[in-house]
Specification:
Length: 410
C-alpha cells in the first residue's frame, strides 16, 4: 500500500520542478565545450539555428540564436563533427534539457583555434605585439611593395585603389603563394626580397577572404617573426573585416581588407591636391598683398628720394632764389619809392626854408664882402661894402648909414 505524503511534504507542480531543475542546472555548470555530431539541423526564418548534438550513445538539444549564428566562420551541416561552446539550460514549459550555444567550430577548426590562441599568447609574452615597436608609415611613399598572389583579387583591388588614391607611387609586386603548406616559406622569401630593396617605402602583405584553413598560412610562427623583424613598415590586409591572423598582430599596421591596406598605406591624393590648391591660393593672395605693400613702400621711397635728389633741391633753391629776387626787387622798388618820396618832401621843405625862395617872392639878402649874412646881430658898418642879392641880380653897394628900425615899422 502506498503511503500518502504528509502535511510537511512539499509537492511540486511540473512548472515548479522544471524551474527548480533549471536553476540547479544553470548554477551547477559554467560555460562549457561539447564535441559531437550535428543532426536534425533546422534553419527557421528567424535566423536561429536548432540542432541535436550526439555521439554514439546520447544526444542533447542545442539552440544557436541569430546574433551568434550570424558570426559563424562556416555553415554547419548535418553530419559535421563540431565543437560547441555554450551554457546548459532547461526549457521549463516542456522540460527540455538543452545547450544554449554561443559559438560553433568545426572539430578540425577547434584544434586550429587552440593552436592560434597558443601562438598568440606566446608571441605576446615575447613582446612582438608591443605598440612601441610599430614603425610609422611614410607620409609620401614613392614606391610601394605588395606581397600577395599575382593572380588573386587582392592585387587587383590594391592596384585600383592606389591608382585612384596615390597614382604617383610605383607599385612593385613580390609574387607569393598565399595558401597551402608551401605558402609560409613563399611569403617569407617575398617579404625578405621586398625588405632588401631600399627604394621601397612600405610593404603591403595581403590576401583576399577565405575560410580559416585558407588563411592559416598567415598564422605561421616563422612568418610572424619575419614580419616583426623587417626594416620597412608592414601593413597587413588579410581576409575580410572579421578575419584576424597572427600576422595582423605583428604587422606595424593592420587593415581589415586588401583595399583598406592600400588606403592605410597612402595619403589621399585628391584630398592632398585640394589642400595644395587651397595653400597655393592662400600663398598667391599673400604674395599679392606683400607685393602691393612693397610697391607702396617703393613709391614712398621714390617720392622721398625725389624730394631729396640734388636736382630737386637745386630746382627748389632756384625757385626760392627767383622768389627772393622778386621779393627783393619789390622791396627795393618800394624802398626807393619811399626814399624818393621822402627826399622830394625834404626838398620841398628845404626849398620852402631856403632864402632863395624868399628872393623869388621879391625879398633880398644882404651879405658882407665875405658872404656872411647881415642882420641886427651882425649889422654892417658905415662905409663897408655890401652885396645885395635879388632873385636874379646881385648889387654891389656901400653903407652910408645904419639905424635901427622902429618896432611898429612892419
Amino acid at each position: 500500500m502506498i503511503n500518502q505524503p504528509g502535511p510537511a511534504t512539499h509537492i511540486y507542480t511540473p512548472s515548479e520542478l522544471n524551474q527548480e531543475a533549471k536553476r540547479h542546472i544553470e548554477a551547477g555548470f559554467g560555460r562549457i565545450w561539447i564535441q559531437g555530431e550535428i543532426s536534425n539541423l533546422a534553419r527557421p526564418a528567424s535566423g536561429h539555428l536548432y540542432f541535436t548534438l550526439k555521439d554514439g550513445r546520447a544526444q542533447i538539444r542545442c539552440a544557436l540564436f541569430k546574433p551568434q549564428a550570424s558570426k559563424l566562420s562556416f555553415q554547419p551541416a548535418n553530419g559535421d563533427e563540431v565543437l560547441v561552446q555554450g551554457q546548459l539550460s532547461l526549457y521549463a514549459p516542456r522540460g527540455d534539457y538543452q545547450l544554449i550555444a554561443s559559438d560553433v567550430l568545426s572539430a578540425g577548426l577547434g584544434a586550429l583555434h587552440a593552436a592560434f590562441e597558443a601562438l598568440k599568447a606566446k608571441l605576446a609574452e615575447e613582446g612582438l605585439f608591443d605598440p612601441q615597436l610599430k614603425k610609422p608609415l611614410p607620409k609620401w611613399p614613392s614606391q610601394i611593395a605588395v606581397v600577395t598572389s599575382s593572380s588573386g583579387a587582392a592585387l587587383r583591388d590594391i592596384r585600383q585603389t592606389l591608382a585612384k588614391r596615390w597614382p604617383s607611387a610605383t607599385v612593385v609586386l613580390y609574387s607569393s603563394l598565399v595558401q597551402g603548406e608551401q605558402a609560409p616559406a613563399s611569403l617569407i622569401q617575398a617579404l625578405l626580397d621586398a625588405d632588401s630593396a631600399p627604394e621601397n617605402d612600405v610593404i603591403i602583405l595581403a590576401r583576399g577572404g577565405g575560410s580559416i584553413e585558407d588563411l592559416w598560412a598567415f598564422n605561421d610562427e616563422s612568418l610572424a617573426r619575419t614580419v616583426a623583424g623587417l626594416q620597412h613598415p608592414v601593413v597587413s590586409g588579410v581576409g575580410h573585416e572579421t578575419d584576424t591572423t597572427i600576422v595582423d598582430f605583428v604587422a606595424d599596421h593592420r587593415a581589415a581588407t586588401p583595399t583598406a591596406a592600400a588606403v592605410l598605406a597612402t595619403p589621399d591624393g585628391l584630398e592632398l591636391s585640394q589642400t595644395l590648391d587651397g595653400i597655393s591660393q592662400t600663398l598667391q593672395r599673400s604674395m599679392q598683398r606683400l607685393l602691393s605693400q612693397h610697391a607702396q613702400s617703393v613709391d614712398l621711397m621714390e617720392q622721398r628720394l625725389l624730394r631729396r635728389h640734388p636736382m630737386t633741391t637745386l630746382e627748389r633753391s632756384a625757385e626760392r632764389l627767383v622768389e627772393l629776387k622778386r621779393r627783393l626787387e619789390l622791396a627795393t622798388d618800394h624802398r626807393l619809392k619811399g626814399q624818393a618820396d621822402r627826399l622830394a618832401s625834404l626838398a620841398r621843405t628845404l626849398n620852402s626854408l631856403s632864402p632863395l625862395s624868399a628872393l623869388e617872392r621879391g625879398y633880398a639878402i644882404v651879405q658882407d664882402e665875405q658872404g656872411h649874412g647881415l642882420d641886427a646881430k651882425n649889422p654892417p658898418l658905415k662905409g663897408s661894402k655890401i652885396n645885395i642879392l635879388l632873385n636874379e641880380l646881385e648889387i654891389l653897394s656901400s653903407v652910408d648909414s645904419v639905424r635901427h628900425r622902429p618896432a611898429d615899422a612892419d
